[in-house]
Amino acid sequence: MPNFLDLPPELRNQIYSYLLSPFSNRRHLGDSFYAYDYSPSLVLYRLNRQIYLESRKIFHSLNTFVRISTHWEQAKHHVALEGQVSILLSSPEANKFPLDTLSVTIDTFYPNSEFETVAYYHFIILFETGDLARFCRSWYYSSLNMPYLNSHLSLDLALHDPYTSTSPFPMTGEPHIPKLKQSQLLEPFKQVKQLRGFQVSGNVTAYPSLVKSLNTEMKKSLDPPEKCLERATELKDLGNAALTSGKYKEAIEYYNKAFFAVHVIIDGKNRRVYGDAWFDATITEEGPFKGQHAGTARIIIRVRLVANTILAYLKLNNYDMAIHTGMRTIKIMRTSIGLDEDEGATDPNLEAMVGFVASGEMGKIYYRTGMAYKAIDEKSDARKLLKVAAVYLPNDKTVKQDLASVALRLS
């Protein structure tokens, strides 16, 4: 009777890869959050020695574990919620976890600080799922809101081979952290700028060229607000050109990149806004934004991007995303003036903020979102939004015509 070991090795490896991939061992918790449980898959380790050795090699190739150590007990909650990083293990379970390839130790330096004697808190994340990159991005955004944060922090990146001859799980063969893997592990930390101290250590020697490149990038300053705004404007213009050319999906990609340039992350229907404090300054450098308040210029760009993104979705007949994109901004505007985010005002004149810095673009958002509702025959919602659009854009004949098309008819 044939058994599993009768299969060709390459087919067994495909099965191991499917069972041991991090993506096969997680469950969705909502938004971008996941929980991991390898227990069912790691039953492979207990079947027999040959399967154990074969599957363990695949497991190691597919799962690179990173240990984060910090004095701040709430760090894991912050990176999980703000950075959307999935935590595999946390203290005390993470304290003795033996399979981390990269150990990230963040030390604080405040003279006479209580942190001098506080213990470390540890948590484990996965590299392959993008969580290390998200962790570093979360750190980057924290430094935007707290400009002096990194000047009080030092970082030790320690490379470990968890499968050396002296480890609990030895594995013979080629070095398990080659140059490419080292580069991939160190690359995300280029987002972390101007630390008090930085070093690379561990029982695996890092390639000097990689350390030098990382050190050079980390010493650079953060892009100032005006550079972010200029880059976002360039990407918005590229998006507009794609929109005009009928390349609607490409236009949306450019618009999302423009959002990203001003620290707004668009991920499907999810949006996260970072760096408000970073843009709370008047621009003094020469350029198109000189003399402007960076926060105000950012708002104008964001509103224009929303209006144009809705138009691109309308062109694609993707009315669901057009409505979602428009209503997200409309709800924020309603809440800011004390209105119910879903109902708005009964009088459109009370809802329209005609003195708003980007009132014309807001009118387009109301109009285009209303047209998306009209396209799915939700005339009541369309009528409510188009009435507000007509206040924002009183001289636009198209708005008036479309409003008339959804007006209540008296029998």
Protein traits:
single chain, 411 residues, alpha+beta, Serine Threonine Protein Phosphatase 5, Tetratricopeptide repeat, 3 domains, two-stranded antiparallel sheet, 10 strands, globular, TPR repeat, TPR-like_helical_dom_sf, RPAP3
Number of strands: 10
Total DSSP helices:
14
Helix proportion range: 40-55%
CATH fold annotation of the largest domain:
Serine Threonine Protein Phosphatase 5, Tetratricopeptide repeat
The radius of gyration is: 26 Å
- What are the secondary-structure elements, in order, as H or E? HEEHEHEEEHEHEHHHEEHHHHHH
Oligomer: single chain
Descriptive overview:
Keywords: TPR repeat. There is one protein chain. The radius of gyration is 26 Å and the shape is globular. Strand 9 (264-267) and strand 10 form a beta hairpin. It is built from 14 helices and ten strands. The chain folds into three domains: 1-62, no CATH class; 64-219, no CATH class; 225-405, Serine Threonine Protein Phosphatase 5, Tetratricopeptide repeat (Alpha Horseshoe). It has helices at residues 9-20, 49-62, 75-81, 131-145, 179-186, 208-219, 225-244, 248-261, 294-315, 319-336, 348-351, 359-375, 379-392, 397-405; strands at 26-30, 33-36, 65-70, 89-90, 100-108, 121-126, 153-159, 197-202, 264-267, 270-273. With 411 residues, the protein is an alpha+beta fold. Helix 8 (248-261) packs antiparallel against helix 9 (294-315). It has a six-stranded mixed β-sheet with strand order 4-6-3-5-7-8, with helices on one face. The mean pLDDT is 90.
Quick summary of this structure?
With 411 residues, this protein is an alpha+beta fold. It has helices spanning 9-20, 49-62, 75-81, 131-145, 179-186, 208-219, 225-244, 248-261, 294-315, 319-336, 348-351, 359-375, 379-392, 397-405; strands at 26-30, 33-36, 65-70, 89-90, 100-108, 121-126, 153-159, 197-202, 264-267, 270-273.
